[in-house]
Structure formats: structure tokens, C-alpha cells
Design brief:
Blueprint (H helix, E strand, L loop, with lengths): L3 E2 L4 H4 L8 E6 L6 H9 L6 E2 L1 H7 L19 H13 L10 E4 L5 H14 L2 E8 L2 H10 L39 H25 L3 E5 L4 H15 L13 H13 L2
Parallel strand pairs: 2-4, 2-5, 3-4, 5-6
Antiparallel strand pairs: 1-6
Length: about 260
């Protein structure tokens, strides 16, 4: 399918069917469209979304004994990440449900991926990567254009839809749209540089640990990006337990992969 750069060999596609859910980590550079993709993937079937920043904000007691992060982007250290992941997935603070789980913009480093993989092993789950790739031109254009609505969305990162009659106002509540704080040039530059520096180690570790990994071409028009991401998500979550609605055709993909295994 256009937009999916196949990085899964047949061996990688034959994912072991873990007892727990598949944790599909959506990663990509700032401006690639991660928030839009995550929203598209999770709405049809009520797929749960894990966001590290939301877990920390909604459960401040988890890191109450940690000093404030000195990081310019607000990132917390690996020890803090471990505590949040353990509380979420081992202690059950985050409701994973029965099917796949989407992790929005996490992990951001190889160290975080290693911790996530260890947590997944502990609960019988499996990690998979869905990576968005985009050119510098695409990133600049999307960052310049996107806006958020601070009035009707609790997530200050969630892209807002502008009114058809006034592009400066939210289509849902009519409030004035704002630029995302992290999209100001200085912060965007820091985020992009950090992502670019960390990506090689993330992909190398994924390969070493046999973590399934699909890449989506985010330079395409957004409807095509969403269609490609949906297909990649279906493949990556093929071994997850799903309910009868099977919103992304995971049952069909399990049958297809089983047929491939049986082929001479």
C-alpha cells in the first residue's frame, strides 16, 4: 500500500501472540503528524492511548520524591520513567483493555525503549514500533500551520480543527486557536535535534530485540498518511486480542500470516 515502507520481513511479521496486548509505539519527528495519526487510530474501536506526560500530570504522587526535571524540554530521567511505566502497566494504574494499546510519542530514547520492553515482558505483552518519516519541508509546513484549542481540549498537544468560516477559531467551540507552545522555533529545533539524535539507537535496539517495526511515509497528503498508518497498525497489532468488532481487520491479518507460515 502506498506510504508504507515495508521494514518487516516475514519472520518479523510472525509475531508471537503474547498473553497481553501489543503496545504499538507511534514515534516520529515533531510535525510529522503523530497526534493526528494517534487520534485516527484510536477513535473507531476505543483503543487506549498511553501518554507519559499525561500519566505524570494526572498522577503526580508517582514522582513526588523526584526533583523537578532540569531538562529544557521537560523530559524526566530513566528512573522516573521506569516508575511510571511500572505503575501504569504492572500495577494496573493504566487500563490497557483486551486489545492493542497505542503509545503516543513514546519511547523517545533507546533507554526508554529498553525499559518499555522489560515492562512488556513482565506482563506478557509485546512492543511494536510505528515510525512516521517526513522531510524537513513537510515538518516546517505542518508545524507552521497547526493550532490547538486550549478551551475545549484537555490535551494542549492535540491539533484542533479550524472553523470553515474563520480559520482562527475552533470548529467545536468557537474559541480562538493558539499555536502549540512546543512549536515555537527554539523548542521545535531542540525537539527535532533530540529526535534525530536518538532515532538510530532506537531502531538499532528494536532490531536487536526483534521488535516489529513499520515505517510510514508522512510526506504524503494527510488522508494517505492516515490510511497507511492504519494498515501498519493492523499488521503490528495482528497478535493482539481484539473484540468482535475488530476495527482494523486484525483477524484477517492473523489468518493471512498463518497462511504464509503454512506455505511451502
Amino acid at each position: 500500500m502506498p506510504g508504507v515502507i515495508a521494514s518487516l520481513t516475514l519472520r518479523a511479521q510472525r509475531m508471537r501472540c503474547a498473553e497481553g496486548p501489543v503496545l504499538v509505539a507511534v514515534i516520529g519527528p515533531p510535525g510529522a503528524g503523530k497526534s493526528t495519526v494517534v487520534s485516527h487510530l484510536t477513535k473507531p474501536g476505543g483503543v487506549p492511548v498511553f501518554r507519559l506526560r499525561e500519566m505524570i500530570r494526572s498522577h503526580p504522587q508517582l514522582l513526588a520524591d523526584f526533583a523537578p526535571s532540569p531538562d529544557p524540554l521537560g523530559w524526566v530521567g530513566l528512573q522516573a520513567v521506569w516508575r511510571v511505566l511500572h505503575a501504569a502497566f504492572v500495577d494496573g494504574l493504566f487500563d490497557v483493555g483486551r486489545g492493542p494499546v497505542v503509545l503516543d510519542n513514546f519511547p523517545g530514547t533507546a533507554g526508554q525503549l529498553e525499559l518499555l520492553a522489560e515492562i512488556a515482558d513482565a506482563v506478557g505483552a509485546q512492543v511494536a514500533l510505528l515510525e512516521l518519516r517526513a522531510s524537513a519541508t513537510t515538518l516546517v509546513l505542518r508545524v507552521a500551520q497547526r493550532r490547538v484549542c486550549l478551551a475545549c481540549s484537555p490535551d494542549s498537544h492535540a491539533p484542533a480543527v479550524a472553523s470553515e468560516t474563520d480559520s482562527k477559531r475552533c470548529a467545536s467551540c468557537g474559541a480562538t486557536l493558539s499555536r502549540r507552545f512546543s512549536d515555537v522555533p527554539r523548542l521545535h529545533g531542540l525537539r527535532l535535534a533530540r529526535y534525530s539524535a536518538n532515532l538510530p539507537e532506537i531502531t538499532e535496539l528494536a532490531a536487536e530485540r526483534g521488535i516489529p517495526h513499520q515505517r510510514v511515509d508522512a510526506d504524503l497528503a494527510m488522508p494517505d498518511v492516515l490510511a497507511a498508518a492504519k494498515r501498519a497498525f493492523s499488521l503490528l497489532s495482528a497478535c493482539a486480542s481484539t473484540d468482535s468488532t475488530d476495527p482494523f481487520g486484525a483477524d484477517r491479518d492473523r489468518r493471512r500470516l498463518a497462511d504464509a507460515d503454512a506455505a511451502p
